[in-house]
Amino acid sequence: MHGFRRFSLATTMFALLGTLWHPVCLAADEAIVARIEAMEAGFPVQVLGSRLMAHQALSAFYGANGYQPAWKSAELRRQLIDSVEQASHDGLNPADYHADILSGLALRPMSDFSEDLRADLDLLFSDAFLMLSSHMLVGKVNPQTVHAEWTANRRQRQMESVLKDALQRSDITGTLDSLRPADPAYRKLMAARQDLTRLLGQPWLPLALSPTIRPGDRDERLNEVRRRLSLLGELAESPATFSDPRDYDAELESAVMRFQARHGLEADGLIGKDTLTALNVIPVERLRHIDATLERWRWLPESLGDTYVLVNIAGFELKMVENGAEVLRKRVIVGQPFRQTPVFSDRIRYLVFNPTWTVPRTLMIQDQLPRILRDPNYLSRLNISVYRGWGADRERVDPLEVDWPSLNRNNFPYQLVQEPGPQNALGQIKFMFPNQYDVYLHDTPGRGLFSRAERSFSSGCIRVEQPFDLAERLLASAPDWSREKIDRVVSEAQPQTVVLPEPVPVHIQYWTSWVDNEGRLQFRNDLYNRDARLIDQLRGTAEGDTRYNTPVAGSGPAQDKL
């Protein structure tokens, strides 16, 4: 009772302060006051069986509004209903925003309802807006509930103020649209999602995964392969283009290769296990992968930067963008599934030419020690020095004097440092953005791996193909730095650190779907099985208050990555 009494006094004060919105003080709607008081006291409040979710934001909004109804305009209600019904275009579930109730009742004149039901519906509309606007702004799912190594720079706003502004401007549709990620890539993916929905309901029975079908073969499965490739836009089907739909002709081979390229497979024209597995993915599963990517876009900062570097882990690709135009695209190698590359944003601050590599402790014990025990010449062959201790007091020791078999996780008082040179694990350059994960971009001596379709071979860091092209772009605004100077510095084989004139944002992301520069919808394997966890949470019921959507700070130790 004391809690209700205190809150009643507070509501009276809010009503008096409501003149910020209303030139004349209006009496509070007692039905709205009663429901807000109930929420503040911790009681669940339901409207026609649907629970209100945005408790703090609802309380703040109606308090500032003098506890007056906010949704008297049928036009504004219509705008919100349309936006809720179209939430699926963003990969969101309209049911999270009271879609069934709003669509069924809210367009009737408010005079049709009792005072209590009018208050209920007003709160329901506000709750729907607050939840949807919050999810548009920062996403429905907290990224760290999907994976601990995920740091998102989520946008923050007071959603009750967003609702107030939308009502004052009589523009619900425009306000919600403005909260979506502004990058054209998000809108392109939304459009691709809409196009893909036309395949829902199409028969999609599994194709047998063996044997492999080769060009020139005849196979009963090819008739269904043709049908699917036609539906997916890879094949312009015409009865005159082949003599028998079971024959693997040149036209079908070209379509298969296009499909393989769009799905990150070896574009060899062989319809083997991987290609048939990709063809067997039903359209609704593809939609869910798109939904996961749209959600991850909503976790990004409001602006990626005028100039930035973006790495897509699942796509094994890096690109650099300047003033909205892509100026560089390179293949990358990322972490193995048991040493996953984390997702986060930071800024590239400096480059190191001819770097040394101080082997992280985890890798020293798990990777290097077994190799040293197997091969006595391993350290000398790879130009790795051994030091006892750390910092300025460390002492270089002769590897032959170390009792390597006696060392283990609890007894390893050494550092391993690989000197600059062609065998250095970091190659001849690294791009530094100090972070809690000890992850960065770097060169590699193992350049042959870039030809693989799936490139998850590192211990967490990101190896960049042709890294000096990236260095040249990053140093374009630095005085006295040219490609010729870069080549000269590298040839000297001495470590040199170069600080960038302006740090460049770098965004390390995990997208299994996107629309490329030619407008083609691309898909990749869920390398780290991250989509499945995210999709489960996106399909679940929305929970939690939405007044402040702040990121959960990264917790847990930095991991050794290479």
Describe the structure concisely.
The protein has helices spanning 2-17, 30-40, 55-64, 74-85, 99-105, 115-138, 159-168, 172-179, 184-196, 222-231, 250-262, 273-280, 283-298, 361-374, 378-381, 467-474, 483-491, 530-539; strands at residues 46-47, 50-51, 307-312, 317-322, 325-335, 344-353, 357-358, 384-388, 395-397, 414-418, 429-432, 441-442, 456-458, 462-464, 496-509, 513-515, 521-523. With 562 residues, the protein is of the alpha+beta class.
Task: Note down, in words, how this protein is organized.
There is one protein chain. With 562 residues, the chain is of the alpha+beta class. The protein has helices at 2-17, 30-40, 55-64, 74-85, 99-105, 115-138, 159-168, 172-179, 184-196, 222-231, 250-262, 273-280, 283-298, 361-374, 378-381, 467-474, 483-491, 530-539; strands spanning 46-47, 50-51, 307-312, 317-322, 325-335, 344-353, 357-358, 384-388, 395-397, 414-418, 429-432, 441-442, 456-458, 462-464, 496-509, 513-515, 521-523. The strands form four sheets. An eight-stranded mixed barrel has the order 3-4-5-14-12-11-6-15. Helix 1 packs across helix 2, helix 6 packs parallel to helix 8 (172-179) and helix 9 (184-196) runs antiparallel to helix 13 (283-298). Mean pLDDT is 88; it is low at 1-25 and 546-562. The active site is at 442 (proton donor/acceptor), 461 (nucleophile).
